[in-house]
Write a structure and sequence with these properties.
Rossmann fold, seven-stranded mixed sheet, 35% helix, binds 6-O-phosphono-beta-D-fructofuranose
């Protein structure tokens, strides 16, 4: 709990964008304005505060009713975001010309104070909420809002953005059936989700995939090949395989595209790796489709819009009630507040005994195990 009257709050969006960010921004802004608070938006994560000189129009955007008009249904974020600007590990050039990671969190807290910002509503996933927690521990009043298409955040039934990503992925899987059947191909569809298989599992089951490969269940390529053979034996000459970008074969590692200073590893290539190996094993034509950032675009679904608006207004209520260092979390029928520390200490992966996996197994979907 934190004391002191709030006069001015800031909103920021960090990490990868997710459908629903703008709806949260609108709900926070209007709810706060209705309390008589001033609201500013920080550009590009924390960059607008850390490097205001880089923004000729200012690093802080004054948020008014007009600023947030007509944005509830829009993807992206009107504030901009970054996944390279972690203030606790900021990529910085050393005197020797070499890059290193610098902790700029105290400098950031000072910038909040200098701008007379009493509290922050931070919209983000595990990385951004970890940063929010550091700022809260340094004395800033902070409320986190769980954003990520990956749905990998603990202590909330859902993150906003996930439902939109799953809905779109399901539609893509639906669309691939006809072309797969027409050409008698095995279509391997790679989906985002980082180290959690939520998107792939939910879209895979809903989009009637024949195999679903997720990070939580290391796969045996021979088992996947056998599942394809079994389909052929049943005179089904095409197949759809949903593979998570973080899926890995038993004893193997994730497919990493690149590692960069100050940001999480970039994943990619899991689909192509699988398709090549499967084609070699089965002699069947395997083609890969990578849905990638398409899952992050578009208008949020009704579920995500409503969740975002609920989260945004709950964040303002939490501040008014004196909370800090907490995240708003969906716990139907309500939204409650959970300590940021509990959210960021571990990732929410798919439990192997969850009902969706049991359903998939009952339906004969192969997990490669
Ligand atoms: O966390 C959201 C997410 O879309 C992941 O599913 C994916 O691995 C990552 O972000 C991609 O990030 P970027 O756009 O920075 O490559």
């Amino acid at each position: 709990m934190a004391n002191g009257k709030i006069k001015k709050i800031a909103i920021n969006t960090g990490g990868g964008d997710a459908p629903g960010l703008n709806a949260v921004i609108r709900a926070v802004t209007i709810s706060a304005l209705n309390k008589g608070w001033e609201v500013v938006g920080i550009r590009d994560g924390y960059n607008g505060l850390l490097m205001p000189e880089d923004y000729h129009e200012g690093g802080l955007i004054p948020m008014t009713r007009r600023t947030v008009r007509g944005i509830t249904h829009l993807g992206g974020t009107i504030l901009g975001t970054t996944n390279k600007g972690n203030p606790t590990r900021y990529p910085t050039m050393g005197k020797d010309g070499k890059m290193f990671e610098k902790d700029r969190s105290s400098e950031l807290v000072a910038a909040f104070r200098k701008n007379k910002i009493d509290a922050l509503v931070a919209l983000g996933g595990d990385g951004s909420l970890g940063i929010a927690n550091v700022l809260a521990e340094k004395g800033l009043r902070v409320i986190g809002v769980p954003k990520t298409i990956d749905n990998d955040l603990e202590k909330t039934v859902a993150t906003f953005g996930f439902d939109t990503a799953v809905s779109f992925a399901t539609e893509c899987l639906d669309r691939l059936h006809s072309t797969a059947e027409a050409h008698r191909r095995i279509m391997v569809v790679e989906l985002m989700g980082r180290y959690a298989g939520w998107i792939t599992l939910n879209a895979g089951v809903s989009g009637t995939a024949d195999a679903i490969l997720i990070p939580e269940i290391p796969y045996d390529i021979k088992k996947v090949a056998a599942a394809m053979k079994a389909l052929e034996n049943r005179k089904k000459y095409f197949a759809i395989i949903a593979v998570a970008e973080g899926a890995a074969p038993k004893g193997g590692g994730y497919s990493v595209v690149s590692k960069e200073l100050g940001r999480a590893d970039k994943l990619g290539g899991a689909g192509e790796r699988l398709a090549k190996e499967l084609q070699a094993l089965t002699g069947r034509e395997c083609r890969t489709v990578v849905l990638g950032h398409l899952l992050r675009g578009g208008s949020p679904t009704t579920f995500d819009r409503l969740l975002s608006l609920r989260f945004g207004s709950a964040a303002v209520r939490a501040l008014e009630e004196g909370y800090s260092g907490v995240m708003v979390a969906l716990d139907p029928p309500t939204v409650r507040y959970v300590p940021l520390k509990e959210v960021t200490s571990r990732m929410k992966t798919v439990p192997l005994n969850c009902d969706t996996i049991l359903t998939a197994r009952s339906l004969g979907i192969c997990f490669g195990d």
